[in-house]
Specification:
heterodimer; A: about 200 residues; alpha+beta; five-stranded mixed beta sheet; 7 helices; 5 strands; flat; B: about 250 residues; alpha/beta; ubiquinone biosynthesis (chain A); SCP2_sterol-bd_dom_sf (chain A)
């Protein structure tokens, strides 16, 4: 079975399902009507081509020209959600972009501005009360998980810095860096002075 | 040339019938299965036909403004996608010899809001009612094996294709591995008709489906037939172990 087509099919289905949940997405999608965009992820052997109309079609086509072609790593894909990040990613050489940058920005905006009323959609199947409670529960779990992760991060940081002293404190690193810079400057001055003295001795 | 072209008889599954009567017999099969065609496709292929069709679209090279002929287009799976890919300036013609299939396809596409650049034509693949050098792309998915005179149909497709255009033939073919072939035979002749009987109430049509697949030319024979009518750079790609093959040929 052709795996790339299976992947493209799953991605296309997911993208269009998610867009259908946001009633305002059609307006943003209309800005991309008729455009083609190709994304090559470093971790994937095949590029994905997105064709925009009243929905998004995902193709594995590699031969047809596109309005915008991008190459980046999967780890930077999340940063692409914010159109303002695109220029910074290009400058940092984390993103290679050929063609119309506006297409990439419109696609990023399409995904970033998704506003899905999950409670409303779930209530169609479960009723209002269950939907409200389910969404509240998920939000609580998310908040708690986030808070636990932050706490855990802080505990690991404190343990590594202070109790076990596995890594130096950021202030110590900063101080060390400044010392190294001073030493580099002193060495440069010393070298210049030495050269000067050598020149004089030769005369 | 295909041996069948030289006589007045042809295959209808394993039966040998008059050429004149095959079209109406095939029509009978598709009138019977049209209403539940999509459901049966999903059921019998376990949804894999969608992946085969996706692969076909990926090999089509279709772009905005192209004119596409989806022959034996059935319920419009390929035409729906092509309609979006060619855009407002392009055109897709969904053609099928069977009016029941065409009606199901037209209703399905209209229900999905696919209108404007799709036209529906009841046409026989052997004598296509279109001008010479007219289409950028022709696809025929799971249709060629039902055509009475395949050579004549391929020649007709070659005529209406623009120079630089391509033909894609997606069709059941010959499995590459012997073990797979045996398992596939078992499935085709024992499971397929029973599911057909259960869902559509028609085992015979699905018996014909299994037989017609076995009587269809294998990968290399079909490649040769395409070359014989003038197609160039003909290649094929086996899918799911050769159960299905996608043939691609260009007109220059």
């Amino acid at each position: 079975m052709p795996m790339p087509q299976l992947l493209a099919g799953a991605l296309e289905l997911a993208l269009n399902k998610v867009l259908a949940l946001d009633p305002n997405s059609q307006k943003r999608l209309a800005e991309l009507d008729g455009k083609r965009m190709r994304i090559k992820l470093q971790e994937m052997p095949w590029p994905l081509t997105f064709v925009f109309s009243s929905r998004i079609d995902v193709l594995m086509d590699q031969e047809q020209p596109v309005d915008c072609a991008m190459a980046l790593s999967l780890s930077h894909l999340n940063e692409m959600q914010d159109p303002a990040n695109i220029s910074a990613l290009i400058q940092d050489k984390k993103l290679s972009l050929n063609g119309d940058m506006h297409t990439a920005q419109s696609f990023a905006a399409l995904m970033k501005e998704l506003d899905i009323d999950w409670e409303e959609h779930i209530s169609r199947y479960t009723g209002d009360v269950i939907a409200h409670e389910s969404v509240r529960l998920v939000k609580n779990i998310h908040q708690r998980a986030k808070s636990h992760f932050l706490q855990l991060g802080q505990i690991i940081k404190d343990g590594a810095l202070q109790e076990k002293q596995l890594v130096p404190h950021p202030l110590a690193i900063e101080d060390f860096s400044q010392e190294v810079n001073r030493l580099r400057a002193d060495t440069a001055r010393f070298e210049a002075r030495l050269n000067q003295l050598e020149q004089r001795a030769k005369r | 040339m295909n041996q069948q072209s030289d006589t007045n008889q042809t295959h209808f599954g394993y039966k040998t019938v008059d050429k004149d009567s095959k079209a109406s017999m095939v029509a009978g099969v598709f009138h019977s299965v049209a209403a539940k065609y999509d459901l049966m496709n999903d059921l019998l292929s376990m949804g894999i036909h969608r992946i085969w069709k996706r692969f076909t679209i990926d090999c089509s090279g279709v772009r905005a403004g192209h004119r596409v002929l989806d022959l034996a287009g059935g319920t419009g799976d390929l035409a729906a996608k092509f309609s979006r890919l060619v855009g407002e300036k392009g055109q897709v013609i969904l053609a099928d010899i069977n009016d029941s299939m065409l009606k199901v396809g037209r209703d399905k596409l209209r229900d999905k809001g696919i209108v404007g650049n799709v036209d529906y034509v009841q046409a026989n693949a052997e004598c296509l009612p279109f001008p010479d050098n007219h289409f950028d792309l022709i696809t025929i998915a799971f249709g060629l094996r039902n055509v009475t005179d395949k050579d004549k149909a391929l020649a007709s497709m070659f005529r209406v294709l623009k120079p630089g255009g391509r033909l894609l033939v997606l069709e059941f073919s010959k499995p590459e591995i012997e073990a797979l072939s045996k398992a596939y035979d078992l499935y085709s002749f024992h499971v397929l008709p029973k599911v057909g009987q259960l869902v559509v109430g028609d085992a015979e049509s699905y018996q014909y489906l299994a037989e017609s697949i076995r009587m269809h030319p294998d990968q290399d024979t079909l490649k040769g037939m395409m070359e014989d009518v003038g197609f160039e750079q003909v290649t094929y790609h086996n899918l799911t172990g050769g159960i299905v093959a996608l043939h691609r040929g260009f007109k220059f």
